[in-house]
User: Fold these one by one.
Assistant:
Number 1:
Amino acid sequence: NAGVTQTPKFRILKIGQSMTLQCAQDMNHNYMYWYRQDPGMGLKLIYYSVGAGITDKGEVPNGYNVSRSTTEDFPLRLELAAPSQTSVYFCASSYSISAPLGNEQFFGPGTRLTVL
Amino acid sequence: AQKVTQAQTEISVVEKEDVTLDCVYETRDTTYYLFWYKQPPSGELVFLIRRNSFDEQNEISGRYSWNFQKSTSSFNFTITASQVVDSAVYFCALSEAGGTSYGKLTFGQGTILTVHP
């Protein structure tokens, strides 16, 4: 199992450019998430998905879009990149929650994005 | 709204010292889950432990131990006899268990631990 994979590892964008961060998991997880980690800060949730075709906003969704056409893939789209989007982006996945146990999230290696 | 606070921004110790990382959380849910993740210099996030709110037993795993106290809303992490390889950023996180939580994690801001030889 590759777990959660993310591409690219690094990217530099110019202001106003667009790009898609790719995320895939091969664990047949229902739930997938996108977080961003700003320097010296914890991770903040951008978007999440509970299954193919179902997505919802997290804490910091502005400037991003997502889609989930398959169980495996959960791409994050940046439209009109801004310097404030310079961050490290982590994708994660987990099984569906079944009470009373919470499942750990498995994280990808991250994508380091710089917007100049 | 839920919140996780890690008051210690940075901790520096010498190898073999014991070190405790503090985590205080806020949530309205009676059922929730607490996590610790390690982020070494390479940048990936490594899961360390999950604890549900009904289980207040402390846990020990090798040199690592966790102290969960609902009365003070704390979930502290102790490393005994620290080693240089323990140098990393450590995150405490909370997930509520309500029907629409979907496992979403709220992270603390992290504690940078540096262990000197």
Number 2:
Amino acid sequence: KQEVTQIPAALSVPEGENLVLNCSFTDSAIYNLQWFRQDPGKGLTSLLLIQSSQREQTSGRLNASLDKSSGRSTLYIAASQPGDSATYLCAVKRTYKYIFGTGTRLKVLA
Amino acid sequence: DAGVIQSPRHEVTEMGQEVTLRCKPISGHNSLFWYRQTMMRGLELLIYFNNNVPIDDSGMPEDRFSAKMPNASFSTLKIQPSEPRDSAVYFCASTPLSSSPGEQYFGPGTRLTVT
């Protein structure tokens, strides 16, 4: 049974810091891994999608990497801003199912 | 495209009442998912439809929950009778093809409170 874990559960950093969010999964047989952002009281917004054959994806200040063999993905946020404050969730897809981690709650202090 | 549309956005009801949540997936997407999110359990898959057919309903908590997808552009999740422990945010999501490694798109959610 696939399990997805995100560490840390919460993170508070000063503005401008580079930071790394971690996601680990137990079954490496995945189609893809997707990182989402969720603002309080809102839905999930897709940030980056990494196919199983890919190693990383980049979008602006965000970079996500995938190491299937070790069951790990990291989301790197460069030069963090207060607007980055949100909960970040990773999800792995196998067949049709997406299994979600419990998220990392990020607060960037001005 | 307007994205995945859900209604209502908020629902407050009394225990024992019937609740119906609605979802309109993105046009052209043939896979639809209903999720429930709570602080305790995170995001849980309730049911998955492919081409309007329920494929996996193993996440539906009990018989009080039912879901339908009468056509490609509309789905409902019904709770009858509702209980306080059903209070949660219910999300609908769609993807282009079930077997493709494509992105999943979420609606804004319905916040359900059962008193």
